[in-house]
Structure formats: structure tokens, C-alpha cells
Amino acid sequence: MVEEEGVRVVRCGGSELNFRRAVFSADSKYIFCVSGDFVKVYSTATEECVHILQGHRNLVTGIQLNPSNHLQLYSCSFDGTIKLWDYVDGILIKTFIVGHKLHALFAIARAEDSVFVTINKEKPDVFQLVSVKLPKSSSQEIEAKELSFVLDYINQSPKCIAFGHEGEYVAVVRDFYLSVYFFKKKKTSRFTLSSSRNKKRAKNNFTCVACHPKEDCIATGHKDGKIRLWRNFDDDKKYTYTCLHWHHDMVMDLAFSVTGTSLLSGGRESVLVEWRDAAEKNKEFLPRLGATIEHISVSPAGDLFCTSHSDNKIIVIHRNLEASAVIQGLVKDSNIFTGLMIDPRTKALVLNGKPGHLQFYSLQSDKQLYNLDIVQQEYINDYSLIQIELTKAAFGCYGNWLATVEQRQEKKTELEMQMKLWMYNKKTQGFVLNTKVNMPHEDHITALCFCNAEKSENPTLVTTSKDGHFKVWILTDDSDIYKKAVGWTCDFVGSYHKYQATNCCFSEDGSLLAVSFEEIVTIWDSETWELKCTFCQRAGKIRHLCFGRLTCSKYLLGATENGILCCWNLLSCALEWSAKLNVRVMEPDPNSENIAAVSRSSVGSDLFVFKPSEPRPLCIQKNISREEVQWGVFVPRDVPESFTSEAYQWLNRSQFYFLTKSQSLLTFSTKSPEEKLTPTSKQLLAEESLPNTPFYFILGKHRQQQHEKLNAALENELVQLPLTENIPAISELLHTPAHVLPSASFLCSMFVNSLLLSKESKSAEETPNDVDMEEEKESDDSDEENDFTEKVQDTDNTDLGEDIIHQLSKSEEKELRKFRKVDYSWITAL
Amino acid sequence: MGEFTVHRVRFFNYVPSGIRCVAYNNQSNRLAVSRTDGTVEIYNLSANYFQEKFFPGHESRATEALCWAKGQRLFSAGLNGEIIEYDLQALNIKYAMDAFGGPIWSMAASPHGSQLLVGCEDGSVKLFQITPDKIQFERNFDRQKSRILSLSWHPSGTHIAAGSIDYISVFDVKSGSAIHKMLVDRQFMGVSKRKCIIWGVAFLSDGTVISVDSAGKVQFWDSATGTLVKNHLIANADVQSIAVSDQEDSFVVGTAEGTVFHFQLVSVTSNSSEKQWVRTKPFQHHTHDVRAVAHSPTALISGGTDTHLVIRPLMEKVEVKNYDAALRKITFPHRRLISCSKKKQLLLFQFAHHLELWRLGSTVATGKNGDTLPLSKDADHLLHLKTKGPENIICSCISPCGSWIAYSTASRFFLYRLNYEHDNISLQRVSKMPAFLRSALQILFSEDSTKLFVASNQGSLHIIRLLEGSFKHLHTFQPQSGTVESMCLLAVSPDGNWLAASGTSAGVHVYNIKHLKLHCTVPAYNFPVTALAIAPNTNNLVIAHSDQQVFEYSIPGKQYTEWSRTIQKQGFHHLWLQRDTPITHISFHPKKPMHILLHDAYMFCIIDKSLPLPNDKTLLYNPLPPTNESDVIRRRTAHAFKISKIYKPLLFMDLLDERTLVAVERPLDDIIAQLPPPIKKKKFGT
After folding, report:
1. Are B35 and B22 in contact (CB under 8 A)?
2. pTM for the model
3. What is the pLDDT of residue A137?
4. For residues A299 and A825, what is the distance between their CA atoms, to the nearest angstrom?
5. Cα dihedral A811/A813/A817/A818 (nearest 10)
6. B467 in contact with A at a CB cutoff of 8 Å?
7. Which of A107, A641, A771, B385 is the most buried (most CB within 10 A)?
8. Which chain B residues are closer than 8 Å to A224 by Cβ?
9. Spatial CA neighbour of A448 closest among A522, A391, A389
């Protein structure tokens, strides 16, 4: 099916949306933002990503609409090229090769055949603003080497450069001065403010600049929160400025409205301030935007503003200061303590988000699904405050339960800690707080894990702590005369020679619990909580611990701080093998026996994928990242790939995502994940421009009915939780080593049960295989229903897909496309 | 053990009164300032902002308006309903004329200076014709409903704008009828029950009327149509004053929050002729209401309830960035309010309506340099002498022996004899003062307290011999023929032979008292004299001018001394010339003839004529070198100017005896504490 190429590390979504100012299309329908090596086109109405313009080979650093054709977009990148795009169709029109690393791009209407870019020469901190002549040529790739120098020693950030009305001058700020270069007079005026060594200790540093679109007026933002409006700056002596002061901290960005009647400013206060008529007393606020405003941009039509925030979010705001759309990417501005997790229901990546929140991030659509407020306290944005931090989280019981740990430590002895257990509520489709445990342990919790075995009738959670104990929490009946309720209570407290408990792990079937106490691994029976045996290798404290899965479930793996990876055989209770490997991340694949380990060496991080039973690793990927890899996770694939090459087989069922220290989310792929995205987005675009044809009236009605029917059916179906694993219970029974199997009487009922269920699930599982991949793309799979469990969605797809396939064959669809082009609006008028 | 024991006096409870009006005269570059107690002061902006002249206040004459007309003529009007013209030569009031319209709130002189307009409590606007020696009522304009608080002439003189309560009227001068009535919103965007008071209006030549009001707005009106053009809300409190520059390209407004805002007319784009008014810089130099602002060609001038007069130069108008481009803040009068009896260790403090006599404390303790010595006897408030009548005291003096006190108001001269019996003190007024002794500008006793010298406001100098309980008029030096200029400063030589007197502009005259004739006249200098003193023994006259130059003139030799010539040749240190405040007092060390002691408000200096003069490269303000340094270094770094900045603001400093100094300070915080509380403003982060 898929030709195998070399597996390579790709940046997968989650890239910054707030790196540069977003740009509106001329009709305010689309918003463009740079995102890593791509430019993303979002619809301002639906918040949906419509196109991804890809072609740059390095970070895109600037985008601007083509002033002479507002359906085209310029972009520049570190790869030294300027590309011209047709954003409506997502087509690359031209590539101009400049050769220098380009840091920012400006296109103004006056200079028709040239654009302005910032480059840096020689010294790392010396940037120049140059104008690049774009030669007219019909070829796709054109060399544009004709650079003419405009200004030297400027700030790297494009926020510090602004072009005046009709492009008559350019204003540039850096440190304590403002330079204005007049293109006609070819003259530079420079205005200097006193540096911070002055009496009042005012932080006069310039941070950003904006030019009035109609008048000779320059607005500059400063580090102390002041905004200065400069006028008469064509005269070195008579220049004058006004101060506007509301922000208490650095002004992050400024923008004038299209008519220039109001000025927008934003900063760390997360409040968008609109200064009307540039008057200090006449200002409007849009507060509580959630995070520091990094950039502000204004649509050329004047009806929309947008703010980019430090939590990787773009908010589209109406002219009347009402937020209308939020485009939220992966939040990256906090430390990741929880690691990467996969929500079993939505298959979303779960990790720390905004302070005190867990974010659910869809890897498929590269957007945040939702935020779960864990701490549930007002966040006060102050550097000096010690905040409550969400340190641990774990999902259990197929996403029915979520356990979180938050802590705050002001002094060594004053630890505040809370463990919260959240239950998934099917009605509200969200997590609801069930149990709150104050100080579950005396000291920091080092690990927590749920028992995820299928058979376990009672949800079990284990926490380990530095205080030397591990605690087992079980769900008990908490009903009273008023209501039926369940709650979590501590069932067992275990310890081992007062060593700090560092890790815990349940075996796949839930019968065994492994808890590491510094250098020693202890194995406990999960039925009776008896200590079964201990392993000690004296090779340093255990950093990671995990059981093998499936055929390898007799193995226990431990990685120590001294760089030893050990594998113990649970049957012989002996060390099977050990290897010298400085393991930073160790993650088992839930769908196979494979275990991925990322090791850190002096040059970079290396990935090893191995089976515990085999001494030779399946795959070694050297130098996957220059930085330290902090977290990794296997994400099960929706549709298994079929790599035949042995080295890539481990990627068949799951995909491995990892997060580096600089918080870039990377994965392995033979093709870029965006390729998969494009069909759906294209379809969305097509749907958006779909005129109301007679067919629409017929089909649309029908479709709506279908939806209603489906929804009704779904509500009934919601209660059942079919198995997602497609391995038959029998084979599982046979694969499982005898020593871990529970008693035969217990097995019997389970076996029968699994047979009963398997009948139903089989029908649901087989159907998606019947549907061809292409048809699935073509079919109208409704993404809005993302929130339902994967299983349900699958059935949904099939039902819908079948219906449409019946009604619309390929030729019919072509017919339909033709009809689209014909205007049928007269029908509505009838 | 230091060189001097210093009495650090901080019980002079002087509070200057708040500034009510400021009027700038472009022709002579002078500034007239009126205070709430009716005092009018004239500052010469070209002479280093020196307070040249002053007219004492009067309890019933609260000035509400001040203006210059016909070039050099100064008028004021107040709540007693009188228009007053001041005689700037004789330093007295020329005449007062009732306008018969109740209290006068506003006054404006016509652009050509021939007419004077006053706005009265009863709503009338009255036009006066200015004749060469008086003013003459011409006619009333249409009477308005409420008081006229502000007035402004159109530069062509054809129209006027009058600000009242809740509306602005535009009058045609020819017909005297109101052609427009422009109603002002009581509050910016909203309603308020409080009336909107138009504190100030300004009529520009293009027909724009700018108004400032109690709702905190600055509004631009089109006088042709009577419509509002633009609105700037700049303050939460009243905007109380406005002043427009002569070029009409900038104006300044003062608010009750103490902020002064500058507005400028800037072109919208560099290549279009369209211009707009833009609020540019705010200045927060005041803590209280800014009641008055003025706009000189190069500076913004503001004054208010917090008693400071602030002169803020406009950087873009200053040609060279020298010391003139610095901000000036004038708080204290540039004249002496304190006199001292060295023998009895008494200090006489002059207030607006009373005098206080204090005996200095004493100590028996000794200590190191810089120590604060404990007092064995506290300072004693001996006497509180209230004036009779509503007039303010012009000047006062205590004799060196401490047994005579003399003071003068604008119409009467008082002389008292003090008798000390142990701790008791008795006061006896010397009655039957001669008729010619009505008002004095300066009073001085001779060193042996036998003679009294009085500079009267007719320009004459009277010499009076004091006897036990009585007096005898000895002689009167009549002013130089043709001049009526009054003498403001007097100095007598310790041996009693010479008397030096100086007026506001002409040179210093030296009289021989023995022969009762004019001895000589020191060559005239461009800048006014701020302090005079005659050295003992040598009879050298030391003169300090407002440009910070100091001259030494030998009276017997009738020429400048060698030292004075040297220092003129070499020039003073640039930092010395850049000081803000004039030297107000000069004295001499009885045992060290080479020393001259002088002080201004921020420093005290001993000039040692035997030491080399500092050049611009040396440190002027050298801290006293540590004593453990070798003498060589000390000699190398030493220069003639030994300056101490410990005591500030310093109102008076004198040498009581060889080892004792008295310094009278008036900390600004103490003045602020006595002012009414300012408008409370929320400060961020508090």
C-alpha cells in the first residue's frame, strides 16, 4: 500500500502559532499564521485549518499579503527563500531565492516589485533591513539577489519595524532609540530616550512600534508599560510625543485600526486595550484573554482584530471587542510534569497546558480539544509567586477515571499537595471531580498508576511517594441516604525498609504490582498485597519501570540512573539480561510487545526499540534529536500501517511521539502527517464554497435526518463499552504465561463473557476494513463528533459512508461537482 | 571639633502663599505673579529668573486676574471689585478703581493694549479705555446670567470669548452683543448635577475658541458656527488654567491634579497643510491645583496652590542646550525675611502679618565635626508682634544690639524699643514718626545700633539717629535727579562711615555718612543686585548679581579690587554660574579678612581669597577632604570656594561670632504639610 521510504523524524504539529503576527486576508475570511515550517490558513468563522502551505525547508519567519494582489501571500523563511502562494487553492506560485537567512518580511504597496526583509550579517546580533527586488519572470524559481540596504543595526523582531502611511517612511526601534528613515528624502532621524540609568529608573526600552495608517504618527511601546505617540518626527528638533500609560508591564504589541482612530495594545496583563482617539481617558478593554498577548493584528477590512497569545492561541476579535473565535494550538509555556499521555477515549494527547490545567490536544487536527481545569483557582500572573503545579496525572479504566496530583511548595517543610480523582461523565462528556484527597502522602508523589487490566472489577490506583510508602486506593461505595455515590479510599499502605518509593507499575493483567524503592524492585500480589519477591541489581536508583506485554509479559524492565537497563524474568526471578544504556524515556507500546527507550548521549538522543524477549533491538535510530528527549508516548494508529521492513514494523500499530526539552513535539514518519490532513481540509473548503443547489436541498434534508437518527441511536449506545483490542480472548489466553493466569474458575466466566462480546464487536470492527480508505476520505465523516469514543465514531462512519456510497457513485459525484459551478440561487428566490 | 558651631534653626514657620495668577510680558521678558494674599511679584526672566520687584499684599485684595497692557503697565483685579494699576518704578500702587460690578473674576487686555476688559460677578463684561495715566470706563457688554470667569480677545480685537458657568459667550466688540452662546456638557459622556465652570478660554486667530472647564475637558469650538469641534478629556478634576503661545502653535493647560498638559499644533502628514491639535507631554511638577499657567516663547510657566513657580523650558525652542534649558522651581522669595541680632543672639522672623522674635538656644557640650550637640537651653519664642491693619509687612529689621525693632507696611512705619529685664521683655513703640517715614522698602541699623537707615519708596534714603527712647532725623539723600527708582538693598560698613544702596536696575550708590554726601557710584551692571555687604576694615563692597557674578569694589579706592579683577578675568566655575537661586546674604568673618561668607537657598559658601581660584576642570563642590589625608593633597585640591550643601533650603545664614554660625532652614516637607490636602489620586500598586 505505502511505499517504504526511510523513516525520519518529523515535527508533528504543535508548533508555535504565535511566533509572528497573524495576517488577515483582504476579506477577513481567512487568517494566516506561521507555524514551524508551514503557513497555516484558518477560517476566521469556523476556526478550522483550511490549508497548510508547505514548501519551506526551515522556520517560516514572516508572511504578508501581496499588496498588488490580495489573493496572494508572500512568506519568507530561514531557508533563504521568499515564496509567493495562492492561498485560496494552497498552491505555491513562485519561489524567490535570496540566499540569506531571512528574519522578517514586509511588503508595501508603494514598492511594487520589491519587498523588505531583515537579514543578519556577520555578527549574530546585528540585523539589517534591506529591500529585495523581486524580478519578474515566468519561471518557478527565480534568483533574487538584488538587495539594497535601508537600515542597519535594527532589532530582529518584526514588531520593532513598522512602515508609515503610504510607505513614506519606516520606523525602527531598538534599545533606547527610535530611528525613522524617510524614503523620499533618504534621511534618517534618530530619537533617543534616556537609558535605565536615569533618576526615575524608568525602563524606557522600546519594545514595539506601529505607524498610524493615515497620519504622521508613530506609536512605540516600552518596557515600563508606556506607549508613546510620536509626531513631528520629520523635524529633529520639533519632534514631540505623548504618553499613554495603562499597562503595568512591558507593552508586547501595538496596532492601529485601519482608519487610525484607535490604537490597540496588549501585554502580560492579558487585556486588550483600545485607545480611542489616542486619548488617555478614552479607552476600552477586553480583559481575561487567558495569557500574555504577544501580537496584535488588524484585518485590512477593519472588522476584525486578532491577538496571538503566549499559550499558543490566536483569538479573533470583533471590532466591538468581542472575542469571536479561538484557534488554540498546543500550549507550551509551562513545564511538562505530567509527561505525555493518551486519553483512551478521544485518543488525544494529554499533558500540562495552561497553568493548573490539563490540555487535550488532538494530534490529528493539530488543535487543542479542550482544557480541563485541575487546580480550579484563579491564576495570578506574577513571577514572584509560587504557583500550584499539576505534577502528575494518569488515566485509568479506559478513560473512565483520571487521577491528578497538584502541589505547591513554598518552603522545604511546607508542602501542600492534593490528589484528585475525576470521573468521566457520559452525559456531559467531561471529567467531573469525584474524590479529593488532601496530603495523600507525607512527601512528594513520585508516580501513580491505575490497574488497567480488563478483568479487574474494582478500579485500583497506586501512588508512590518519597515518604517511603506506596498506597493503594480503591473505589468504594460512598452512598448514603441522600444519593448513590462512589469514592476512593486508601486500601493498603506498603513500604520497604523505609526506602523512598520511586516508581510503580502494574502488570498487563493486573495481577502483579511492581514498586521500586530506590535501587530495589519489589513485586506485590495485587490480590492480597503480599510481597512476592524483590530484585536488586545495585546499579543505581530505578528511574523507569515497566512490565513487558503480550508474549513478553513475564519480563520486567527497569532502567537505572547509572545507565543500566535491566530485564528480569518473573518466572525464574532472575536477571534475564542487562545492557548499558542511559535511558531517559522508556515507553511500552500498548499494542505490541515493543518497548521504546530513548537514551541520552553527548551528541544527541538515540532511540532503541526492542522486545524484552529478544536480545537484539528491533530498531536503532541514532541521533533523533539534538536536545534531550523528555517524554515519549506510543499513540495507537487508527488504521494500521503495513511496513514489511523489519526495522519499521514497530511503527505498524502505533506511532511514537516524543517531546524534547525545548518542547517540540516530534514523531517518526515515512510521510509527513500533514499529508493525511489535507484531504479533509480540502473537503472542508469545498463544503464551505458549496452553493445551495437543488441537490443540496434534497440531500441536505436527508442528511440532517440521518444525523438526527444517528444521534438518537448514539445516545442509547453510549452505555456500552466494547473492547478495542481486536485480539480474540482465546489467543490471549494462550499467549499469557501460565504463572500470571488467574484461577480457572475465574477464567471460565471471563472466557465466556469475551465470547459474548466478541460477536458484537466483530461486526463493528470488521466493517471499517470493508470501507476503502479512499472512500472514507471522500465520505463526509463528521469531525464534529470527535468527542465520542473512537468506537462509536467508527460505526458512525460506516453507516454514513455506506449510505452515501449507495446514493452517490463516482460519476454522480462528478455530476454534482459540475452543478456546483452553476448558480442555483434563483431557486431560493422562488 | 569643627570650624564652626552651627545653630540649625528649623522653627521659622514660614509658608509662602499660593500662586493665583501668572502674567507673562513678552516685551520685557518679565513675569508677574500674584499670590492668594494679594502680593504681586515681578520676575525678570532674562536676569536668571530673579524676583526683581514685589508689591506687598493686602488682606482685602485677593487678586483674581492679572494682566499686562500697553507694554509695561501692570493691572490686577480682585474680589473686592477694584482694578489696580501698579507703579513699577516706585513699587507702589498707582491707583485702584472700582468697576462697580461686584467681585471681578477675570480681566483681559486687548491685543493692541489700549483696552481692558473685566468680567464681573454680576455677569457683566465691562470695557475700559486705557489712558496714559489712568483707565476710563467705556461701556458694558450684554449682561450674562452668571459670573464671567474667563475672558479672551480675538487677536484682531473684534471679538471676545467669555467663559461663564455652563456656557461660553462670544461677543462682538463693536456692538457689545453676544453673537453665540456655546453650551458646555457638564460631564464628559454622562450627566452630572454639578455645574460646569469654564475656568479659562482662549480665542485663536482662526476663530477657534479653546475652553477648559471643571469637568476636566479641553474643548475646541468653532466661534463662527458656535459648535464643538473637538473634545479632549484630560483629567478627572478641574482644568483650571490655559495659556496660548503667541504663534498659536502650542498651548498649555493646568489641572487641579497638579498636572500641566502641553498641546501642540502638528501637521497631520508631512506633506499636507492640514494641522491638528495634539496633546503631547504631561508635566507633573505640582502636587496641588495649578491655578495659573503662562506660555513664554521658550518655556511653560505654571504656579498653583503648592506655592511653587515652575518654569519648564521647551526643549525644541531652546537654541543651545545650556543651563537655561533646565527646569526651574522657585519657592522662596529672593529677599531676606530674617534679621539677626548678633550680640543678643536673637532672630527676627518676618511673616505676612506678624513678626516673631526668637532667642537661640545654647549648649555647653562639645563634639566632633558633624556631631549634633544636645541643647542645654532651648530656643525661646520671645515676642509675637502682630501688625495693625490689613496690609502685609514689606520689610523688618532688628538692630545688632537687639534693642530696636523696625518694620514697615505699605502705608506705615513702626519702630519699637525693646527692654530686657532678666527674662522679661518689654516693648515700647516709638511714637510720632515723622510724616516722611510712611513706607519703607528696606530698613537697616548701623553696626553700633545708633543709626537707622530707611530706603523709602520715593527713592530717598533717610538717616535717623536713635537715642534712648527717641530719635532724630539726620539727613535724607534724595534720589538722583530724574530717576524715581526705589532702593531695595542697603549695606552699611561696620565702622559706620559708608552706606551702599542699590535699586532694581541702576548701579550701586555709595554714600559717605560722615560727610552726608554721595561718595561714588559703582559702574552699572546688566543684572540686578541680589545682595550687598561692606567688609570690615578694608571697606570693600561685595556685590552679588543675579547672574551669579560676585564683585568686590574698594570704596576708598573707588575701584574694583585686584581679586575682583582676577576672578572676572578668569571667570567663575561653570557650576557656580549654573546655580538656581540668587545669593541673598553676604557676611564676613571678623578675624579672617580674606573670607567672604555667602549663601543662596541651596548652598553656603566661604570664599577664601587667599586660595587659588578653581577652573572648570576642578571639582567645585568638593566634599571636605578627610583630615587624615596629607596636607599636600589637601592643599592641591583646595580652592577659593568652600561650599557646603548640608543646609537646604537655606533661608538665612550668618556668623554670630568667630566660631558660631546660625542657619535658618525651611524644609519643603514642612511647607507641604501645612498646605490643604491635594486631590487624592489612586496610585497603581498601592
Report:
1. no
2. 0.78
3. 83
4. 29
5. 30
6. no
7. A107
8. none
9. A391
